[in-house]
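Known limitations

Structure tokens in this collection are predictions and should be treated as such. Users comparing against experimental data should check residue numbering before alignment. To illustrate the layout, the record for Class I SAM-dependent methyltransferase is reproduced below. The input appears on top and the generated tokens appear beneath it.
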Amino acid sequence: MKFAAYRHLGHRRVQGYTESSAIGLLHAVDDIQRATGVNGPIAEIGVHHGQLFIAMKLLQQPGEASVAIDLFEDQEANIDKSGQGDRDRFLSHLDRWTDRDGLVIHQGDSTQIMPGDIAEMSAVRLFSVDGGHTQEIVLSDMRLAEKSLVDGGVVIADDVFNQQWPGVCVGTVHYLEQGGALVPFYIGYNKVLFTQPEHADRYRRTLDAAYAGKTMTAIFESSFVGHTVSILVPVPKHPAHIARRSDALRSTYRKVTELIK
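Generated tokens:
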């Protein structure tokens, strides 16, 4: 109930840039992990005021840690000005919508974190990468997320195709071309999802099935740096588009046109 309330209303009251539908995609991934027994901590680089982190924490399973990494007040290190996290606001929003159970906060530069530096950030099942937006920082953060991920875990990369931040796309491509062990499998709502190669097809097929019946969403298959991905595309909220996506409405339309004839 808390997650549903946050997904549909609460996240709008937390300053941030997460598309509402991205929280639904996160929920769908969590459903798959629960069904297949994937568990472990959640983590995010670039918490800002907690908009996506709170959604992740509301999906936290008993005993799982939650790791929040941000510069917060150390904004002199924010070289690309891609967000200005505020620790007090983050904690205020967190207390309003969830709790601090298992919470670990690391204030500082994510590129200086080595695997093992944060004990709770091992075998992570959901890892959001939304920190600095230069190609160097993105490459570093993706490598850290890769080394922190549990088998079957998912990395949620932000702004890869956002035209305002070309460095994110360049850094992501460099990660994939320079021996990255994770592969992309899903693109949608300003997020690109990654996992280990042996799990990618299963996640992709299951998510395709989950979104296949949604009226306002179309699914396309494509390729990103040589890897097969599914792409979620919102369908415009126009009656004609909705009718074309709805079997029931199409059937009604055909019956009405036959009567008119």
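For this record: Residues 1-216 form a domain with the Rossmann fold fold (CATH 3.40.50.150). The mean pLDDT is 89. Please report discrepancies through the issue tracker.
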